[in-house]
UniProtKB/TrEMBL annotation:
TM stretches of this protein: 42-59
Lineage: Eukaryota, Metazoa, Ecdysozoa, Arthropoda, Crustacea
Pfam families: PIP49_C
Keywords: Membrane, Transmembrane, Transmembrane helix
Alphabetical list of InterPro entries matching this protein: FAM69_kinase_dom
Name listed for the protein in its UniProt record: FAM69 protein-kinase domain-containing protein
Domain annotation FAM69 protein-kinase: ranges: 224-414
Top-level taxonomic group: Eukaryota
């Protein structure tokens, strides 16, 4: 009271200042906490984004490495560029000749090649597969390097060291043309289970430009050995006269070009856009093709990896099987079963879609395929059944299919007794019924 209103007013002012200060501090603290929480959220979000980016990059690299997806840039930098450097620098022949004298090299090693290629996905058996546009479409494939190769089916090719070696003089030894032809003849004949036409071997040597100069290079011969040990390349050549598979059109180093055909579908995960009539016609083409595999060679030819996009048509409307890595004549298929040292179930005796049976008493594979090409076609192509994680669309699955066709397809996939002629009759009737 003695101090009066002035003193009291001063104290009141200090209280107001203190309250104001505390209020400001509280606001600052709240703001700071908010910023900390926001920073934590941003930091957490940044970490999540970073992890996602790393995972996506790793996943992309893994999918590229496994050929599940593809990249034109990868083909250019990791395949074409390296190939062209090899044929330009490492594989020169005397008198100015080089491996690039091969037509395919001249098509690949040009400045505008990036605008003329498209990559292919889902080719797990090849380092790279792509389409080359130019003087007609070609499908380019490369062979697997020796260190990545699995054991060859049947008899293996002669070891490179047993064919080419250094003489005491230090010069490189090369077998004579006749000797090399004899070795290749034995290898291919063992593969197909029959004597091979010698004209095929001569064509192989000419395609690889062997014995076209006075002195051969080891690089040229090594590439030749790698090519003939490629299952797809060899199958195309061995059965070329049958016109069942795409032809080899040229080589460049360890790369080769094959005839391009239009596949049944570019993406088997999507429904078919064909009309029902065209589906029936395509199915008839495929069934008649299966009949050829049973009759045109000295023994049946087996399709052991059947997929929708493995069937293609040329410009004359002839159907062929496109992926030859798992196409086997019966002799070769039985050899794979015979060479299985021990089996505990039927899957041990199976080669992809070519199913075998394990004899449980002997733990050995019976030398017989237990299903047929026709059964696999009906099941996987016409009905779209698959053991993979992805559901495939069947070529003949439609509300337009009549009861007879549906019953025939179900019987075909499970019963070895269904014949090609029987399925041809059913499909022909279904197709003719659309005319009325």
């Amino acid at each position: 009271l003695i101090l009066g209103d002035g003193r009291c007013g001063h104290l009141k002012g200090r209280r107001e200042m203190k309250i104001t200060f505390i209020f400001s501090c509280c606001l600052a603290k709240i703001f700071e906490d908010m910023m900390k929480r926001r920073r934590k959220k941003w930091m957490l979000l940044s970490v999540v984004v970073l992890v996602l980016v790393v995972v996506m990059v790793a996943l992309r690299d893994a999918m590229l490495a496994s050929r599940i997806i593809c990249s034109t840039t990868d083909i250019l930098h990791n395949h074409i560029t390296l190939l062209c450097k090899e044929v330009e620098n490492d594989a020169k022949l005397p008198h100015g000749h080089t491996l690039s004298s091969q037509d395919l090299c001249r098509e690949l090693c040009v400045a505008d090649v990036p605008s003329r290629i498209t990559c292919h996905t889902f080719h797990l058996n090849k380092p790279t597969v792509f389409t080359l546009y130019g003087s007609g479409k070609k499908v380019i494939k490369s062979v697997i390097k020796p260190e990545d190769q699995e054991e060859s089916i049947g008899e293996s090719a002669a070891d490179e060291e047993e064919v080419y070696w250094k003489l005491k003089s230090g010069n490189q030894y090369f077998p004579t043309k006749d000797n090399l032809q004899s070795m290749v003849n034995i290898y291919i004949s063992n593969f197909v289970g029959n004597d091979i036409d010698k004209a095929i071997i001569s064509k192989l040597l000419n395609l690889s430009k062997l014995y076209h100069s006075e002195t051969e290079t080891l690089a040229n011969h090594r590439n030749f050995w790698l090519l003939i040990q490629d299952h797809e390349f060899l199958t195309s050549f061995a059965f070329e006269k049958l016109q069942l598979f795409p032809s080899v059109l040229g080589t460049c180093g360890t790369y080769y070009a094959m005839q391009h055909l239009e596949p049944l579908t570019e993406n088997p995960m999507l429904p078919f856009e064909l009309t029902w009539r065209k589906r029936l016609w395509k199915a008839l083409d495929i069934i008649k093709y299966i009949r050829q595999l049973e009759t045109v060679w000295t023994e049946p030819i087996h399709l052991c990896d059947v997929k929708h996009d493995h069937f293609g048509w040329n410009d004359k409307g002839k159907v062929m099987f496109l992926d030859l890595d798992s196409v086997l004549p019966e002799t070769s298929l039985l050899k794979t079963m015979e060479n299985t040292p021990h089996c505990s179930d039927n899957e041990d005796c199976s080669y992809f879609d070519c199913k075998g049976r394990c004899h449980l008493k002997t733990s050995k594979c019976e030398l017989k395929r237990t299903n047929t090409n026709l059964q696999v076609i009906c099941d996987k192509i016409f009905l779209g059944n698959t053991e993979s994680l992805f559901s495939l669309y069947g070529l003949l699955v439609s509300y337009e299919a009549n009861e007879e066709l549906r019953e025939a397809l179900e019987l075909c996939k499970t019963n070895r007794g269904m014949t090609v002629d029987g399925m041809v009759d059913v499909l022909t009737k279904a197709s003719n019924s659309l005319l009325y």
